[in-house]
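Please decode residue identities from the backbone states below.
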């Protein structure tokens, strides 16, 4: 089936700017002399964001950022959905996705003070309307130069080879299509994808810097999607999994060795790391013909001679595409996003 992918317009970017400008300041504006100067604490240049500052902005010390430049940022978006089904993230058309890092039933939670949380039901009666929850992570906030170079070396000469983040997916015991799908009892969404987009697959109407030509539906939106990742199993042992989707649930908790019948608690209270090599991010086949299917992010554009990694625009977490007439519930948490 040909996939229909989310088209994120520049109008949304303008809406973000308008929101910032309209926040304003209540009361009398203090004089410059009375305002203390607070400098951000430097973080390592490989950290994209651990959300500890309570903001969706990226680490201002990310490798390649010029001093004083605006950092990139995370932004939620919803696409599609049948008439009468709002398919809202976190129950709101303007969702707040950054939440305190607490889950009362599973507290305490390892990690930073805040995490990204994407939740809500998706209804996709046949014929499919391809609803999707998405989180975009724009790597730069500069329309005049929106390209992020993933090949930049550190001061010691090392370069990034991949990206990692921590995820938590509470299990939904109801199968997809169950009449109980509206209950926030966990996650049963089987379409969890991650991608890095470069200028070649992004139309200029989707984000500044995109150069994918019309016909957009036929040529574009085929980003570099995950094909394999490393994580841990229920015993806390590292495993590598070949899959086009991210982990679907928390790993199964294995029983303790006999004769002790008590289950072994999963390390980190259900949080699991996901590590993805850039070489394991590849284009799909069957659509987005501007880049051939199966092309890796680490490849070079044969028509221009430029490495794809030198023109990254955004990261993308995407949930619920191609639902195929199902009802699902998404309950997905992620934190500690960084290159390695």
């Amino acid at each position: 089936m040909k996939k229909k992918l989310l088209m994120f317009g520049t109008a949304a970017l303008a809406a973000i700017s308008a929101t910032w400008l309209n926040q304003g300041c209540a009361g009398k504006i203090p004089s410059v002399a009375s305002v203390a100067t607070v400098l951000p604490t430097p973080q390592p240049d490989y950290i994209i964001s651990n959300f500890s500052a309570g903001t969706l902005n990226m680490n201002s010390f990310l490798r390649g950022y010029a001093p004083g430049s605006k950092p990139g940022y995370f932004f939620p978006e919803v696409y599609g959905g049948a008439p009468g089904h709002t398919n809202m993230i976190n129950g709101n058309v303007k969702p707040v996705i950054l939440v305190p890092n607490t889950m009362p039933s599973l507290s305490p939670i390892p990690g930073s003070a805040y995490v990204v949380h994407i939740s809500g039901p998706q209804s996709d009666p046949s014929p499919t309307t391809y609803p999707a929850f998405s989180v975009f992570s724009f790597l730069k906030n500069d329309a005049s130069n929106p390209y992020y170079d993933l090949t930049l070396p550190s001061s010691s000469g090392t370069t990034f080879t991949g990206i990692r983040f921590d995820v938590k997916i509470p299990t939904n015991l109801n199968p997809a299509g169950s009449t109980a799908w509206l209950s926030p009892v966990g996650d049963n969404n089987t379409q969890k994808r991650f991608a890095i987009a470069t200028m070649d697959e992004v139309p200029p109407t989707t984000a500044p810097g995109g150069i994918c030509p019309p016909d957009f539906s036929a040529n574009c939106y085929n980003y570099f999607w995950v094909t394999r990742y490393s994580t841990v199993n229920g015993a806390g042992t590292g495993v590598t999994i070949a899959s086009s989707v991210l982990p679907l649930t928390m790993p199964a908790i294995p029983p303790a060795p006999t004769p002790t019948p008590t289950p072994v608690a999963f390390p980190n209270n259900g949080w699991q790391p996901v590590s993805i090599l850039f070489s394991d991010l590849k284009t799909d086949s069957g659509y987005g013909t501007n880049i051939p299917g199966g092309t890796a992010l680490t490849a070079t554009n044969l028509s221009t001679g430029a490495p794809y990694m030198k023109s990254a625009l955004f990261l993308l977490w995407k949930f619920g595409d191609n639902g195929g007439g199902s009802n699902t519930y998404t309950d997905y948490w992620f934190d500690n996003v960084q290159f390695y």
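Observation: The CA atoms of residues 13 and 207 lie 8 Å apart.
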